[in-house]
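Let us begin with a simple case.
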Amino acid sequence: MSDVSFVRTEMVPEQAPPASSVGVIGWLRENLFSSWLNGILTVLSLAFIYSVLSEILPWLLHSSWTANSLDECRQQIKAAYGATADGACLAVIRERWLQLIFGFYPSELYWRPILAFALAMTALAPVLFTALPRIMLRFSLVAPFLVPWLLWGGTLWTPVAAALGFVFGALAFRLAAPRFGPLVAALAAGAVPVLWWLFLAAGWSQLMQGIIPLGIEAVPSRNFGGFMLSITIGLVAITVSLPIGVLLALGRQSNLFIIRSICTGFIELIRGVPLITLLFVASVLLNYFMPPGTNFDIILRVIIMVTIFASAYMAEVVRGGWPRCPRASTRPPMRWASTTGRRSG
């Protein structure tokens, strides 16, 4: 009988994987050339990218940054790169760089939007990065009132009056909750700040300015522009739309027909309308629905519309991510929405 065993008694020494299955070559085979169809699509995509870059890169590299006119720009390009060369005239970027950043904001006040941007980033840092000290969140509560004051200027008592509205709302909730219940307390917490801002805040800030004059030079909204305006609208809209979107997502999950219908209708209506239409309504049509003589700041109108638009999409993001959250963390808000056990469908 043979002494050859059918079962190996010693381990085979480890060997390196094939070079074609690891590294860059392995990644290319797995992701770009895994089949003949993917290979053809990869080659066509590379050819398209090459054709685009072969036209754009020479146009950018043969550019002029020092010309004072379009004719001078073309002459400089032809003199430097040949009679048939064509390039970009980018001197306008060098000439109008500050205007692209700050719009028509007064040049002697550039320090204010720069400081406001730094304060806004500092306020967002503890919200985005949990490793930072939690005491920084106190500054995150102050920054929303300080940053607009730096940008628009005016009396310091205006942001103080705006902050007092939230303080009065919190006091109203605390006083009304033990006696009338959470629903009435929530209504009071929403009504008291609105009444304060509409009827009392302006007079109070003027009175305090007369007693203790504190303020900086006011800058009208028509001087805003460029990157400063874009970052202002974007930061405010995204920051405010997050809590609104969460509330809309919870309302859409509610068992209460009215709340669910209102939230669903709002989300679907806003998502079905292009943003440019909302901006047109904010800049042109909204004035027709306001009382005669009403001066509704154009930037504030745009911020409101962009916030509404972002809130609808934020609600869908929250609703879509809800089933992926741990069940223990979703139970309290789902109970609040009276929809325990339901998920997005």
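The second case is a distinct protein. As before, the sequence precedes its structure tokens.
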Amino acid sequence: MIRKKGITRNLRPLEILSEEQIESIHKNTLDILENTGIRFESDRALKLFKENDCNVDMDKRIVRFPPWLVEECLRKCPSSFTVKGRGHRSNVRFGGNVSNFLPFPGKDTIDMETWEPRMPTRKEFYETVKIMDALDTVHYTGSYVPWFGFKNIPAVMQMLEGDAANFRNSTMPLHCNYGNDCETFAIRMAKALGAINLGVVAISPPLTYQEDACISAFRNIEAGFPLYIQSGPTYGATSPVTIAGATVTNNAELMGGVVMAQLIKPGTGVLVSDFGFAQNMRSGYPVFGRIESSMHQVVFNQVWRKYKIPIGNHSTGASNSKRIDYQCGYEKTISLMLSLLSGANEIGYHGCIYGELSFHPIQLILDDDVAATIGRFLQGVEINDDTLAIDVISQVGPIPGTYLTEEHTRKWWKSEQFIPKSSDSLTYLEWMEANKKDCIEYAKDRMEKILETHKPEPLSGSEEKAIEEILNEAREFYRKNGNISDKEWEAYKEDLNSPGYPYY
């Protein structure tokens, strides 16, 4: 695996549906789009649909789509596209049989002694982006990654401060969110650095696009950026409880966005993402890391591969555990294995512990090992005259023969075996002599080494100046518009005047 090129799947994708079942989902999705419709809270979007042969109820803001238009717009989507970071090695291509990883964000970090959540500091945020930049299986980053924000930052500035932190500490491309016009400043940051963002459009299930999501679509496409369209239903609450029914509503919602994107600009790159979870029928909260979410994603991936449009899976990275423990490990690993085997091109995975509520750099580092391990599996087994080793087998023969001294062993063992970087691989005797370290302690050691040795490519002086000027314009804009209170501003000024700004 090579940094920035993702993980290549050399195996046939996992499939659990028949062709007849896929066609049934497709036809019923088109039926929902034609007869039930999608609600769009945007006059500009409604006007666009009306001008392109859709049945638009302007009062109810419902758009009903002719099936031919939906299928035509699906065909107009490219089968792959590229986003670009600020570095010369940082392009990421979505599509085909390659999977790229984005860390799965959390609202808070956790205290490793008490396991209780707390807001991270600026220093923790910046250092964690640096760790992300160093990991082989983290290919791009995003708004609200690794956390939704950090201490002393007004709510309205959290996204932009996070975007700036990512640009300052990494060369990776950015998955860019929106809200309160933040995307206008984020687009300008990317343009100033020669980067191409992946613009986010988040659906509000069931069957609704809010106005700010539509605005984000127009702004990002007009900036020349591809779109990341995501639906995040809760099965049994904002979608049908059945996997089949949730797939139909999910796909209808996403296809509505695909049509909007292709009507704005034909040929726009689109990545469609599944971010659904089951509802805990006892508490009413979503449940994470459950097999039904993975089954939904496998079905989703199989259907959308037929449309030849890049696919994202974002239910993959979340666990229901509140600790870095066995439950967290197995829930995340099973989900990731199924997403990768079934052909997801983009996966939100690394670092998350509980839902979107907690993230920790130790989990980020452990998840790097998991992703790389499954990546080795997806490479498959090389079968040729050399790997079959017939001559070596004949030469070594039975006992007392050994393969340890053979040139063939020295040639092949490193490519055939994968060695995790944060796992305990010691014998019992070695382990007892090494203070009985576990994977969390090894991950801590690796984290400290990365922070000591990894040097992300810095912004140039002119690039740093451009980023800070855009941030200052945003601060002034939101202060003038009343989005930043006096109390928030006082805390923010203290942060901005820190001797270590912007890094701590």
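Residues 243-264 form the longest helix (22 residues). Residues 1-379+392-504 form a domain with the TIM Barrel fold (CATH 3.20.20.480).
Keep these points in mind for the review questions at the end of the chapter.
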